Amino acid sequence: MLLGRGVRLAARLRKAGGGSAVPGLVVNRVAPGFLGDVLSSFPEGLVVVSGSAGKSTTTKMLVAILAAHGKRVFTNPSTANITQGLTSALLERASITGRIDADLAVLEMDEGHGARLAERFRARLVLLTNVMTDQIDRFHDAQQVQAMLARIAARASDAVVLNGDDALLTALAPKAAVVPFGVSVDVLAAAPRGLGYAATAPERLETGTRVVDVRGRQARIEVRGEALAVRLPAKGVHYAVDAAGALAAAEQLLGTAFDARTAVAALDAMSPVFGRGEVVTVRGRQVEFVLVQNTASLQLNVDELDEGLDQVLVAMGSDVRDPSYFWPADTARIGRARIVSGSKADEVALQLLYQGVAVDRIEPDLGRALDDFLALPEPDRGIKTIVFTADSMRRTRSHLGLAG
Asked: N or C: which end of the chain has fewer CB within 10 A?
């Protein structure tokens, strides 16, 4: 603890707001048992949330529901879901004896890092969102991700809450009880093209938590046979699925103490996780941030854009090793991109042009692109919208002086 705090102080003195992962790197090297020891110390256990997409939003939703029920919850920022980030997040809150004053922990974990950490923690509950072709430079194929999630699921003692519409998840055979969630057959049939499930298993969901209707930011989710009206933090059926997973996990954790009205109120009050349909005011302009991380999320989020948007900036950064990964998505709904930016600006502009999207300008310098985009007059239709990948999201927030 002393070493970690010393390193954190040194990193911050060197660069204000920087070096957040450095303490975790150092502590994991000198005390490899630290992370597992702290994770095992919560009185009501550890909850791990993992999967290809939806981890950050699902984690935030679950934390909000548990907190509304009076639980003291320790959680990690969505950007701290790998080993060193998790350790640094624990160092921020732990006492000098390495303990955190909370009832339980709800932690988002990257699939690969979670699998490597699996032998070092024991989870009360594991929540798995989905398996998609994602981060192909790291994971190569969906079966590799499936194997990683199987290792994480094996650490659950009480239950594994999983997306029952994803055949790669339903094929897992965890030792703990399986609690499915998902969408009704009607919603699945009408879902946008990007939902990306390998197959469906609606018969698994007849008694589970499931989405029965989605209209923009409004959804109806059936829990214990009762359809709850839920306001989502952003538009789209994928956010409704995240909410269903959070509700299913909360019901499992809270048991008879679970109150549907309290849970709905917590979800209604929740703001988006930064970048996920978040609307901010910057330099006097309203801007919506739309984060896309794989082909499926690009398709889902583009399908939810208002038609005829007047001002859209698209930015793809260095986190995308191979931009052809995004080519299967139909991005025609964007219509017109005022500026395309980021280190992969040329490649994403080419994809947009092939989809019939008008591209006014290519500006690889993201800072300059943001300044010029925000300087444009107010849009004729909708609000200014920035569609970006994770690297460009971080650079955008830093350039604009936004937290997170």
From this structure: C
CA distance 243 to 182: 10
DSSP state of 272: P
Tokens 């900036």 locate to 313
Domain ranges of the chain: 2-268, 276-400
Place of tokens 């191979």: 322
Q: How far apart are CA 388 and CA 313, in angstroms?
A: 8
**CB-side exposure of 282: number of CA atoms within 13 Å?**
25
| Nearby residues of 371 by Cβ (< 8 Å), 6 or more positions away | none
Please give the structure tokens belonging to residue 24: 């975790």
Contact status, residue 47 vs residue 161, Cβ threshold 8 Å = no
**Rounded CA separation 233/251 (Å):** 20
DSSP state of 32: T
**Whether 372 contacts 321, CB under 8 Å:** no
CA dihedral sign of residues 89, 342, 145, 164 = positive
- As a dihedral over the C-alpha atoms of residue 8, residue 14, residue 15, residue 17, rounded to 10 degrees, the angle is 20
Contact call for residues 83 and 28 (beta carbons, < 8 A): yes
Cα separation values, 350 from 174, 353, 366, Å: 44, 5, 18
Does domain 276-400 fall under CATH 3.90.190.20? My reply is: yes
Q: What length does the chain have?
A: 404
From CA 235, how far away is CA 255, in angstroms rounded? 30
Helix residue ranges, H only, 94-133: 111-117
The tens digit of pLDDT for each residue in 34-67 reads 887 888 889 999 999 999 888 989 999 999 999 9
Question: What is the model's pLDDT at position 196?
Answer: 53
Structure confidence by residue, pLDDT tens digits, 260-272: 999 999 999 987 7
Buried residues in 346-369 as b, exposed as e (16+ CB within 10 A)? ebbbbbbeebebebeebbeebeeb
